[in-house]
Amino acid sequence: MASSASGEAKPAETTRTDSGSAGPGFAEFVALMALMMGLTAVTIDSFLPAFPAIRHDFAVQDPNRLQLLVYVYMLGFGAAQLIYGPISDGTGRRPALIAGIGIYLAGSVLAMLAPSFEVLLLARAIQGIGGAAGRVLAVAIVRDRHEGRDMARVMSFCMMVFLIVPILAPSLGAAVLLVAGWRMIFGMMLALALLTLAWFGTRLPETLHPAFRRPVSARAIGAGIAVTVRTRTALGYATALGLTTGCIMAYVGSAQPVFDTGLYHLGPLFPVAFALIAGAMGVATLINARLVRRLGMRRLAHAGTIGLFLAACLQLALVLAFAGTPPLWLLIATLAACQFLMSFAMPNFNALAMEPLAAIAGTASSFIGFYTTLLAAFCGLLVGQSFDGTVIPLALGYCALSGLALATVLWTEHGRLFGSGLR
User: What's the structural domain count of the chain?
Assistant: First the structure.
């Protein structure tokens, strides 16, 4: 079924709206999908420099508690993904995304007005529930329009633009913090969500093939999830994606205490260190996008995973050699190397997981997003909350999670890596 479905589901590169106006071409389509996904990166990263101000305003005693502002968002983000895909499979992608952005806007307003740390945590959870729509539906829309290596190429370009956001987001947050206070960082998020809503609403027609509409019912959702879980490729690569994303969440949760308040005390230079590491991901994702049509998703994903595990082991050895506090340049170099190699795996993991599930793309994207996000948030929280004034917990986390991801890929491929063929 999946095979025939993918043949039917692949629309033309340029579609038309009901009014007859041309839909987006390739570059605009990639940019819009990247913005939908990038809103999450802005929501996570832009307010990291505001942690000290938020701690001061709300008299938060334990600095590690501020990490909850990241992980509460991710938990809401992960749980809500289970909803948007099945709804979009029945009603279409457009109504589901518009509803999600509306929820995100409400969370952003509440965050701007939050009178206490607890209300701010609630606002972050609401933002996560709304922001999940962009992540789920961007992947589903890409799958609606593309398959195989073309899908991986689009996902790589989306990830490249998406990964530029973390380079800029902390600096943008720091600039807003300098002139207007931390609450206006959430105002910036509000403005970006409105831009996304306007762009999507006016430029992108419905992408769900009429033949693939499914009833919105518990039975249909359960059947779609069951197909996803029973598909070894989907489950295996989704698990590997969750584990590697867990490395990123561990880094994001640990970055502010490591680089600023707890260890290296970079102060206003914190966004610079953050950008250097995130920039490695952007470069790698661009290279991946150029190579994937020639080499295939599996070769790049497998090479990236092996490289990530080896780099993580080297990083751990170096961190231990310096008793948990390596020179700043060395830490930035090893983290950048890990993020660089990781970026050959993640977009291809996502595409490989979705490849056999064309007929249930919305539900599959929803479940895979739910599963990978909660797995990543749990792993990131576990590592982040272990911060002890050294980089050892972060280095251990990278080593363990990348090793588990490699083992999962081996299980998925029955022990055979670098498979040949079109995929």
Answer: 1
Q: Which of 79, 39, 101, 30 is nearest to 369 (CA)?
A: 79
| 71 in any annotated domain | yes
**Domain containing residue 276:** 20-213+224-412
Query: Which amino acid, 257?
Result: P
Residue with structure tokens 């002890």?
388
Percent of the chain scored above 90 by pLDDT? 42
Does some domain include residue 310? yes
pLDDT score, position 106: 97
Mean per-residue pLDDT over the chain, rounded: 85
DSSP structure string for 141-192: HHHHH--HHHHHHHHHHHHHHHHHHHHHHHHHHHHHHHHH-THHHHHHHHHH
- Which stretches of the chain score pLDDT less than 70? 1-23, 148, 159-164, 166-167, 419-423
Report pLDDT for 57.
Answer: 94
The predicted structure's pLDDT at residue 317: 97
Read off the tokens for 165: 């956001």
Which CATH number is 259's domain given?
1.20.1250.20
The b/e string for 35-65 (b: 16+ C-beta within 10 A; e otherwise) is bbbbbbbbbbbbbbbbbbebbebbebeeebe
**CB neighbours of residue 118 within 10 Å:** 10
**What's phi and psi for 22, nearest 5 deg?**
-65, 140
Q: Are 193 and 108 in contact (CB under 8 A)?
A: yes
- Quote the pTM value: 0.74
| C-alpha span between 343 and 157 (Å, rounded) | 11
Give the per-residue pLDDT at 14.
38
In tens, the pLDDT along 281-318 reads 878 877 887 888 788 889 999 999 999 999 999 999 99
pLDDT score for 159:
67
Does a structural domain hold residue 83?
A: yes
Sorted by sequence, the CB contacts under 8 Å of residue 163 that are 6+ apart come out as 41, 278, 281, 282, 285, 343
Phi, then psi, of 415 in degrees rounded to 5: 85, 0
Query: What is the DSSP annotation of 57-112?
Result: HHT-S-GGGGGHHHHHHHHHHHHHHHHHHHHHHHH-HHHHHHHHHHHHHHHHHHHH
The secondary structure element, H or E, covering residue 207 is none
Residue 62 within any structural domain of the chain: yes
Give the pLDDT of residue 356. Answer: 85
Q: Which helix (H) or strand (E) holds 210?
A: none
Q: How many residues does the chain have?
A: 423
